């Protein structure tokens, strides 16, 4: 190795970073394109006709129903050939238009989604962060404590194996029905309107606790198990033994081990994001929580192509952005990845 | 003067099938400024002995005996004092020196943390560190690198410097040449010799299975067999006049340049070492020994013959130790 390089080193790192990011962005754009296409196609292959659901709500005479039907079919552009519908979908997408909801006619899909998005984000993000932090800490704590490990491990396995909706139902039944301490439906009381008053926020939090804890608990198990195994592995690693042989304290060795054990967990986070989103959707349905998951379900039940499309688009974009953030994060916390991309090792 | 005095040390491994007696009643001393070589085939307890002096972790258990380093018994020391003693008085270059450093921390950080654990300030040692890095042909710029950015050889040399940064009384080097090619082996031996000459450490225990390497660096040698001492003596005496049949066989099995296998068969030692889980009262080498006789049914004590100590009934006329 020559040591005359550091001058050029910063420069090469910038070039590399640009190359790395461009490559990643290209992959994400492609992923988005295919995901959006599939998500456009799938609702249209469902049997049934969304306009029927709409007409049924107007309860008119059979003759006028026929007129209405052809009117709406044309208005939503569903009489066009599929290819044309597909092109129109992208054209409208780039104008920021996700169409009009059939089920919530005549509200635009974007408006419906933006209204429910905060509920999902405020439920999902804290749940992911809290479960990741607590799960990892707890897993690391349990590792190498034999008795505690024997008790904790089965609990972690049960938690991680539990389906989100099942665990949600369990919590709702226990705390909502049996103990009657928490409400089991909605994001706030029916008598309230959303505002930034203390009364609303506290009421919101009160409703938020159950779906939030059910998400956290299910996600926590997986993180804890992963961390426990990684810590045991790292404490057995040669560098741990060497530090111990040179008289290092357990706390320093554990600190080093934790730092290295967290790396694969961050990778796991990227992989888990999709599942976490799916978990939130089902949890929202269980708790009738007015987030994306809940309206997505309504959209599916009513064959609302545009609403389903819109919801999935937001989910796809969300997961992709989160993955991108994790990619960048990984670059920062693991020198090995960084160095291997710069071609230094 | 003795730096290390080991008396009847027993280090066993707790296994499902019972105790594996990896080090079973070993006694020896290391004098100030001396290099003691420990040799023997794989599984004879060399590494267990070296590691056991520094750090005993399950499944390794201490089952008796003492090891004094300047009047402190390493085997009966509380964990806190033992932790302080490690690195400051007794240090080790491990077998796995090439990956002994955390790959995700900068080298400077690792050294800083290690020093902090011994209440030493990195700033005070910085100059010494730079000086020693130059000695082993490493630029101080590596301190800002990650261990993964160095080659295996560089990492090993770096570990040699890190291990001796606090000038320990005793350094244990455990098979550090085993994974290296011959020319690198020579460099490592030379570096170790230089380090000792410059006073990085007082005494050195050099563990290896390679007798020819030992000849280059050791003052005295201890030959181990199946967890026991076979023979201890000055290196020259052992090479010129090996007493124990095992030592003779070991020296006889060294390959020589200029002799081809089909011309003269390499002399080996037939058979295998005994199972350390089931050791009878007989001499451990009896099954493989060409000179075995009925006395060998009993485990031999150590006899002193001239300056050598040997555990074999053939030298019964010698003084018992």
- The first-level CATH class of the domain at 110-335 in chain A is given as Mainly Alpha
Order of helices and strands of chain B: EEEHEEEHEHHHEHEHEEHHEEE
Report the sheet-strand fraction of chain A. under 5%
Q: How would you sum up the major sheet of chain B? A: 9 strands, mixed
- Determine the CATH superfamily of the largest domain in chain B: P-loop containing nucleotide triphosphate hydrolases
The N- to C-terminal Cα distance of chain A equals 10 Å
Can you describe this structure?
The complex is a heterodimer of chains A (345) and B (321). In chain A, helix 1 (6-44) runs antiparallel to helix 12. Helix content of chain A is 79%, strand content 0%. Chain A has helices at residues 6-44, 50-58, 62-75, 82-94, 109-142, 146-161, 164-178, 198-236, 238-245, 250-286, 292-301, 305-333, 335-342. Chain A is built from 13 helices and no strands. Mean pLDDT of chain A is 86; it is low at 1-8. Chain A is mainly alpha-helical and 345 residues long. Chain B is α/β, with parallel strands linked by helices and 321 residues long. In chain B, strands 7-8-9-3-10-11-13-12-14 form a nine-stranded mixed beta sheet, sandwiched between helices. In chain B, strands 1, 2, 4, 5 and 6 form a five-stranded antiparallel beta sheet that branches. In chain B, strand 5 (66-69) and strand 6 (72-73) form a beta hairpin. The longest helix of chain B has 16 residues, at 182-197. The mean pLDDT of chain B is 90.
